[in-house]
Amino acid sequence: MDNLSRLAIHTMTTKPWDLPTAVAKFSAAGVPGVGVWRQWLAGRPLAESRAMLADNGLSAVSLVRGGFFPGLNAAERTAALDDTRRALDEAAAVGAPQVVLVCGARPELSLPENRRQITEGVAACLDHARQTGVKLALEPLHPMYADCRSAINTIGQCNDMIDQLGDTWLGIAADVYHIWWDPQLESEIARAGRRIAAFHACDWLVPTTDLVLDRGMPGDGVIDIGGLRAMVEAAGYQGFTEVELLSRRWWAEEPDHVLATMKASHRC
Amino acid sequence: MDNLSRLAIHTMTTKPWDLPTAVAKFSAAGVPGVGVWRQWLAGRPLAESRAMLADNGLSAVSLVRGGFFPGLNAAERTAALDDTRRALDEAAAVGAPQVVLVCGARPELSLPENRRQITEGVAACLDHARQTGVKLALEPLHPMYADCRSAINTIGQCNDMIDQLGDTWLGIAADVYHIWWDPQLESEIARAGRRIAAFHACDWLVPTTDLVLDRGMPGDGVIDIGGLRAMVEAAGYQGFTEVELLSRRWWAEEPDHVLATMKASHRC
Hints:
The structure is a homodimer of 268-residue chains. Helices cover 41% and strands 16% of the residues of chain A. The first copy, chain A, is an alpha/beta fold. Chain A is globular, with a radius of gyration of 17 Å. The mean pLDDT of chain A is 97.
């Protein structure tokens, strides 16, 4: 088994565990990184969560998530900006260097309008990113989510947007589940270079029985995770591999077993 | 309601009807085109099916489907070539100008190897296409099918393959369900130009509850079908709009109602 020095786990992966349990368990297992979903911060002061991470020797790799920029009216769009700025504040407070952006999509809007509003929304949050010192990591989502989750679906679109908006406070969260099929993946990751700010791992199961909640444990599906890790490393990425499972199956298992399985399957 | 002169319906759309029933019903409804799935030709001489279409004044727009080129060994790959050549023979026999190719993908193979075998398979069928006078229409499938149905997922990949193999006997079947999300769609359709050989319509439902069998009736989802039709027309396409629904919901309805709904929703 490779060493675990680059392994991070999203709190959503071990969903039944609250933050105190998750950080204690991750720490005891020798897992050094945690992807913090915002729900796990609720109910206690942010400073207390930060201390909890530090006391357990854990790095907050990323805060998940902001975005969802498209809206049907100005009030909705403003609410999304406010929420993303709050996410930046929370990330700064707990010591996470970046907020992952799920850019959003509203079925009522056209695809070009969704994309226009996303670019506008990202641009509107850059100042706050600078003020908080926290990056925004654009996460392209699989094209099967273009209807209602994100109209940003390829690394290429992220590169185009960053070309336009600048890369000081913008990065790209490369999640193998969303991008593995892309025929332009290698060239777009090379083009992204140091923009790659996160590497998320899970697997595509055959068959996949649910569009959202049937992600597989690394190694159980068809994605060449090692090959994709090599691609982002060739582009300059040296950070964590963050295991992020949204899975009814794994959420129903005993989280200690999920954690042990992840450790055993960790390769890169 | 627009006139129906460009409307074609796939036999799979009205699945409960056999070929005699479907052609009689389509004809009576004033629908001039039919996309023939090969299962509908089983059990009678091909000449009889051809006569049945002619007697009802129907054009066979396409035969569905050949392809599935990747295999785990030479015997599997040869079987796929033989089957695709048989499809070309069948298309010629019933008067269909093209065979739609679902290119295939095997989860056991890497994505690059799947793609390599597809290009090799298509190349190996070109002679037979020339001999039968029937085109092969590459259909890019949605990226959510890259694991086990097709590793060809964008119009761009089809253009690249046709650049390599020549466009005399190759075309592209543009199915809105598979391509609507693509950020490069407009430029790749423009690049395709006259290569666009078919235009398939259905809709992406919100939510989509099944990866395969939950396609929507045109108008019931988020796809800008009229906008995509305008795109292929700008590229030079003037052929049929083929309604192809794979849908547990619509298959469970009375096919007369499905047909009436399609006629009423037909816009382009």
